[in-house]
């Protein structure tokens, strides 16, 4: 790098630092504000006195949250969904990516199947046909509707990511294994999968975040609140206050006190799993999303 | 090479994944026949009476549909432009930053909002911009009366674009940063020896270095002209802002699943899917022609 020490350049450096710090702060400040809100007293929150520091620090909203049974039921539903969804994704992705990483010479239908996959990724019948399909399959109120419908929509992208990774592995590996008499399953499990750890970690993290964050299918396929995953539950009680879906008991609690601090507590707790996997996401996903763009 | 007979194993490996996609990706596509039917719950998706283009005729006779298409395209195009430009500017600033530690920290933090759901961020944003929220507190300091930000139809599209850029600019920046690190440092040194100032180096070395990436992203973004972002709009809007903020996907959700007008919602969804598919097709083809970009 060329060193540049003119006054103009120094001033430019300082300007950049100031702008970057300001922008970076705006990314975390709203999250911090939510935490401060959840730790404030209800009256201060309702009066709009909370800004960057909790007013009258207390844990009442978290205590109140502990009594909200549905929150924990939904939390558990989301955990199950993430485990099933990410597990299935991790199983199916290498199984699909490996054959599709072969050239057309080794696997004649490869390109045809690839186009079918691309088509399912780019075209869909819309929400209503999907809704009626799930209804016909009797999967309403079942966690499998969340796992399978959402998973199918993110599967192709993950397969393409892994496939491009497989294609960039040296071909000599394949050839050496073949000379030793290895079959396709052995090559996949003992040669490709161990080498594909970074890309498999990437698609798993994508899958975890997707299943944790997705809320619409919970809303559409679950007819009763008790089956809602966490994001759907929060969407219904925090973002969209619809009195018609609330139980008598909830309505009463609503009217008794401002729910602002409790809502902030719910939002903050729902954020924690993402914050926990975030450092790992950091490590893998940058590599992961640029993987797909590099081709031989 | 001894790969004869491998193909049948390849099919076996692909079978579970394709079965999954067949049920939850491909089968629902056939449900688009609903758009040409008069749906009866008893006769089901494939047995209802055929009415030809009746649903489409009805769709174009509604005032709603025109406005949701206009809203969708307006919000989507603003988002496309802002999400191309803002991350580029930010990536350029970050590229000029000479403090490596700070660079890492800034990157780590600005990616975060991308991984949080719109349920969570919607809850936070609505609170920030509520009548007694921080945004209005700041206005109050300057003696400006409180504004009901998310109750004003004239503001809604811009708030949607602004908050979307806030959530995504860090993530969108990654591709640009990858392109920037790919620029040969010798070019900067050569420009420096020729006496180019810092600004001229940005202009003549850095910008041409990201030109291909930027145009590729711009072309690929074409496929999103009808995607205004369901998750975001759904969590931010309310009946007060339907006139400017209701988009195709939210309208399809309400019309189809809340008002049970399955055929009409399917027809609108189908129109969106078909136009979107054509746009993506064109954009991929153009990207392939100009920059040799391939999906697989």
UniProtKB/TrEMBL annotation, chain A:
Principal location listed in the UniProt entry: membrane
ABC transmembrane type-1 domain: residues covered: 75-281
Transmembrane segments: 12-33, 82-100, 112-131, 143-166, 187-212, 264-281
GO annotations of cellular component type: plasma membrane
Keyword match Transport: yes
Membrane protein topology class: Multi-pass membrane protein
Key words of the record: Cell membrane, Membrane, Transmembrane, Transmembrane helix, Transport
GO biological process: transmembrane transport
Compartments reported by the entry: Cell membrane
PROSITE patterns: ABC_TM1
InterPro entries: MetI-like, MetI-like_sf
Top-rank lineage group of the source organism: Bacteria
Keyword Membrane: yes
CDD domains, per database record: TM_PBP2
Annotated family: Belongs to the binding-protein-dependent transport system permease family.
Protein name: Carbohydrate ABC transporter permease
TrEMBL record, chain B:
Domain of life (superkingdom): Bacteria
Main subcellular location: membrane
GO terms, biological process: transmembrane transport
Keyword hit for Cell membrane: yes
UniProt entry keywords in alphabetical sequence: Cell membrane, Membrane, Transmembrane, Transmembrane helix, Transport
Xref: Gene3D superfamilies: MetI-like (1.10.3720.10)
Compartment annotation: Cell membrane
Topology of this chain in the membrane: Multi-pass membrane protein
Family: Belongs to the binding-protein-dependent transport system permease family.
Designated name of the protein: Sugar ABC transporter permease
Species of provenance: Cohnella zeiphila
